[in-house]
Amino acid sequence: MASTLNDNFGYLFEKELITEIDTLGIPKDFKENTTIIEVDDYIKSMPLLISGAIKILREDENGDELVLYYLEKGDTCAMTLSCCMGQTKSKIRAVAETDVELIMLPKEKMAEWLGKYKTWQAYILQSYHARVDELLDAVDTIAFLKMDERLFKYLKDKAMVTHNDILHVTHKQISEDLHTSRVVVSRLLKKLENEGKINLHRNSIKVLEL
């Protein structure tokens, strides 16, 4: 695991911190569409994303979901850190968007590393900043964009985090992620195709404008 950590974080963290992560971290793999963190879970460790992409969702009281943002290689989830530090239940659901490789870090070390390693402190602060920006972007998307614009942004974001302009996703999955109906999604996908922004195929969608 040491070589993987050096390849991904050697430019970012001190050697001593890399050594601690290598010693204490627990590698875990998750297949695509696997739930990694569930709503109301007590968080016992913080994920450090080595490869793949993770979708972060919020659930309402009726069980309906809404995509907030994605995590990519090198990211961590600031909300997870908040739960680790505050010993509170998770308010989000984390689902593997692709096959994912993680290193799970013990929550007991989070506060210690903030005081011990300047690079860890900078990394966590940057992570908070990035997640807040993404949450504001999600709010702006819901508040100010029309549904067809929201849909196209969703498709582009998905293509970018998976590094693939061909998306294997059903209309039902899209409707759940955007908290709307499948009928609306199907109609708007056809509209986007007519505008030359996507191509619709039997089991996939190709994003033409990225």
Gist?
With 210 residues, this protein is an alpha+beta fold. Helices cover 47% and strands 22% of the residues.
The overall strand count is 10
Rg, nearest Å: 18 Å
Largest sheet: 4 strands, antiparallel
| Helix and strand run | HHEEEEEHEEHHHEHHEE
Which helices and strands occur, and which strands form pairs?
Layout: H1 2-9, H2 15-24, E1 26-30, E2 35-37, E3 45-51, E4 54-59, E5 65-71, H3 78-86, E6 93-96, E7 100-106, H4 110-116, H5 118-144, H6 147-162, E8 166-167, H7 171-178, H8 182-194, E9 198-200, E10 205-207
Antiparallel strand pairs: 1-7, 2-6, 3-7, 4-5, 4-6, 8-10, 9-10
Plain-language structure description:
The chain has 210 residues and is an alpha+beta fold. It contains 8 helices and 10 strands. It folds into 2 domains: 2-143, Jelly Rolls; 147-207, Winged helix-like DNA-binding domain superfamily/Winged helix DNA-binding domain (Arc Repressor Mutant, subunit A, Orthogonal Bundle), CATH 1.10.10. A 4-stranded antiparallel beta sheet has the order 2-6-4-5, sandwiched between helices. The radius of gyration is 18 Å and the shape is elongated. The two termini are 34 Å apart.
List keywords for this structure.
2 domains, 210 residues, Jelly Rolls, alpha+beta, Arc Repressor Mutant, subunit A, three-stranded antiparallel β-sheet
